[in-house]
Amino acid sequence: AETCGEVSALASPRSSLHLRAATSSSSSVPQLTLEDGVHAAEQVIKKSRFIGYAKQCDNWGDAQEFISAVKDEHPKARHWCFGWVAGHNPVQERASDDGEPTGTAGAPILGGIKGEDLSDTACVVVRYFGGVKLGAGGLIRAYGGTARLVLREAPKKVLIPKS
């Protein structure tokens, strides 16, 4: 695939969206100091604090560095769950529940990325446990909702396929 400026072209007949850099919309969310291009959003659900971070990452190495930077920024958090989608034909994707029950964190985050029709995107949701158990359904809604919140607030750039 060719590249056009900062945006990698997809070999697909349909356009896709690409996450672009932005600053945090909430002053209470810690800023990642290691990297630019990070967008953040936060919500509190039943005393648990969920902070979502999203960044354009077109390869797994960049995504791993981003996830490590988020972990370093929040060393006292209970969970750092993520989803990552990149490429086209084949699409690469990875997700992690990081200790939450299977399928309650990584899959909803991945679903949020795919649901927003994004590519080359990593999203990490950090959870500070507030003492109230949310149950499987509550965790799915919390992680997926936080991921969608940050992804919807982030500016996007349309990828135009080139040959």
Automatic annotation (TrEMBL):
**Domain Impact N-terminal: where?**
46-151
Q: Which Gene3D superfamilies match?
A: Impact, N-terminal domain
Task: Provide a GO biological process annotation.
Answer: regulation of translational initiation
| A cellular component annotation (GO) from this entry | cytoplasm
PANTHER family, alphabetically?
A: IMPACT FAMILY MEMBER YIGZ, IMPACT-RELATED
Q: Which organism is it from?
A: Pseudictyota dubia
InterPro entries per the UniProt record, alphabetical: Impact, Impact_N, Impact_N_sf, Ribosomal_Su5_D2-typ_SF, UPF0029_Impact_CS
Which superkingdom is the protein from? Eukaryota
A Pfam entry, by short name: Impact_N
State the name under which the record lists this protein: Impact N-terminal domain-containing protein
Homology family: Belongs to the IMPACT family.
